[in-house]
Design goal:
By secondary structure, the chain is of the alpha+beta class. The protein has three helices and 14 strands. The chain has a twelve-stranded antiparallel sheet with strand order 1-2-5-6-7-8-9-10-11-12-13-14, with no helix packed on it. Helix 2 packs antiparallel against helix 3. The protein is elongated. The model has no long low-confidence stretch (mean pLDDT 86).
Amino acid sequence: MNQQLLQEVQRQNRLLKGMLGVAGIGLVALLTMAAKKDDRATFSEINVERINVLNADGGQAIVIANRERLPQEFKVDGKTMKSNRGEKPGMIFYNGRGDEVGGLIFDGKLDDKGKPASGMHFSMDRFGGDQQVSLSHIENNGSMETGLKVYDRGMVSDYAPLQEAMDKAPPGPEKDALRQKWKEAGGAQTSRVFVGRTRGKSSAVILADAQGRPKIMMLVSPDGKPALNFLDDQGNVTQSFPQEPAAK
């Protein structure tokens, strides 16, 4: 009897070892498959208020958000500042050190007169500074402008301290002097080039100097008349082609 019991125990022990071996092989196979599986997921549709695209180090690369959740602050050259873009949906881009380097914002509604108040604005910023190029479409007060702009703007590290001092200074000569230094440091965003459709419904190429004063304007009016104008510092036309015929 004891011999039979011993043989049964040995048989069950062999069976248990076999089952454990099979389970072990299955576990190894499962872990191997899991290690090879990527983290990608496929969706047919997703509802979300904000998406943060992150780099491997956790830093932001892109933010896509609705009007309530788009960032209202931005960082440039290590300084965090308040944005003036308002509550609009859009997409913001960031460089490798976490500075904002451009983005796309848009909005649209009817004003109290039932006219469109809308637009889209896509901008690209310089490293350590604000936008240098923008592509925009703006409608308000019954007019419309669409075009490409190229800007001049200084480095934030140069004009931000002057901006802070100017904001704190009381009205007077000191504030005026700080404002002039701020402009010289590139604090004022200056439009240098415009290519597009003007609010006056003309197609135009406008070239300006470092102070933002238009100096050359190439225009085609809504009725099809072309013109090439050269302007002085006060905006007066000094030469124009084609010239108007002299009065007889």
